[in-house]
Amino acid sequence: QSRDPTGVNILRAPFWPLLTRCCRFSSDGSLYSAMSAVGGHVGSIRRTFGPQKLLKTENVWLLNPQFAGAAIIPSTLKYKEEIYFFFSEINKTARVDEEPYRARIGRICTVDEGGIKNLLADSWTTFMKARVMCGAGNTQQQYNSMKQAVVLTAEDKRAGVMYGLFSNAWGRTVICAYSIEDIDQAFSTSKLKGYSNSFIGNRPGMCGRKNSSAGNDLKNLGVIRYHPEIEDVIRPVGVAPLDLPTDDQITHTVADIVLAVNDEHYSVLYLGTEQGKVLKVLHSSDGVFIISQYSMFRNEGPVLNMAINPQKGHLYVATAMEVQRLPLADCGRYGDTCRECILSRDPYCGWDKARRRWTAVTTLRRTSPRQVSVPSNTSIFLPCPVRSFHATYRWEKDNCVKNYPCLFSGDFCVLGPAVDTPLREGVFRCMATEDGFKVEVISFKVVSHGRLLAASLASTMGPSLLLAMAALWLH
Ligand SMILES: *[C@@H]1O[C@H](CO)[C@@H](O)[C@H](O)[C@H]1NC(C)=O
Ligand SMILES: *[C@@H]1O[C@H](CO)[C@@H](O)[C@H](O)[C@H]1NC(C)=O
Ligand SMILES: *[C@@H]1O[C@H](CO)[C@@H](O)[C@H](O)[C@H]1NC(C)=O
After folding, report:
1. CATH number of residue 437's parent domain
2. Ligand 1 neighbourhood includes 197 CB (under 6 angstroms)
């Protein structure tokens, strides 16, 4: 059993690709499970226990699915909560020269209560699926079989990053990273495959309370029943697999969000290899960096499982023969000068000036982004004061996988509405880099339709005021 930071427990049988169960709901206690196709079973995604109606996928929606993971995508609005399921589909009748695998994300809304008597009566009415690509751009070199997927999201945030472990027909493995926001965007806006009419009323398959007129509902149920796949394809951040400077085959991966001394959140990946090694990798908007590498097993066997215990600060690593435990903040291994330690770039560690040594960063420190609450259709501008003209300023969103340039500068580096800038809900951090050191200057948490003072002011008086107000707060 491994626990990922979204709080989803994934239980795996010894032959883990066959069965992936995702359990838990703190709020209503429902159990959701995904069963891979095996033997005579076609495979399905179900709600198997709980106070809500028990639902399943229609058999035609999934083609021999092999599940790789699942994650709850939280939302401040309970009825918008979703679960993503990650899997590969296998076309058993594909010709030998064709790739039989397709990597997929399927999603359901937890509010789903099923359809009507003759249409999706016991099935999801919010199931949709998308093709996931992992490979360089549109080239032929694609990794189509998804082996494992992990999601990093913070509490009540619909943003974050999904890491997928993929392999190709020759068994070569790579990791691709995806923005949860991109996935969310695709599911909410893409055309549906094989359906060219426009939608009347609500878009089919959206999470929401049932309340529209019955006629529309019936039509939408039909659309979802026959066209659950979206046309848009989910592509990785950076449009290519992570550029890991290693040729080792990766057999298992887990991920952790770390709040470092500079108050920035970092994604750290632990990659288990075929030779029983563990690579500790930092992933940020600057790319990937191998922080350290461990060989801790007596017998060289593939790493079969890993789990993080965030309370104890340990990583457990298992091969077929052995289990080992590593401290996440393994700060002693980087030598004893400040320079050596900082070069290690391990976000779990920091330099203790008083005791002149490199120590684990206590997890008590938290950033407190200023909350900005706005109606969903207003243009907003987020200001970041430029304090040093030798530094470069940039905006990052959520888990630092993407970054955005300033719209205009001078005394402020401003993030505003522009192409490719999804200025919607999320945490935006302004980062300044000088002499290779990166610090957070200011951060904002943007939420729509809240009841904060800033919200009412912003909606009545416009963005210029928001900018000015933020400037005031800075003093
Ligand atoms: C599987 O592959 C065969 C052969 O290419 C093709 O005819 C068939 O449509 C494919 N099935 C699906 C569901 O894609
Ligand atoms: C939506 O449902 C609630 C009860 O659940 C009802 O009071 C309300 O009138 C409905 N609104 C519409 C527009 O149907
Ligand atoms: C923005 O939303 C409000 C209500 O939410 C609506 O009255 C207004 O027309 C919208 N403005 C635009 C430009 O869509």
Report:
1. 2.60.40.10
2. no
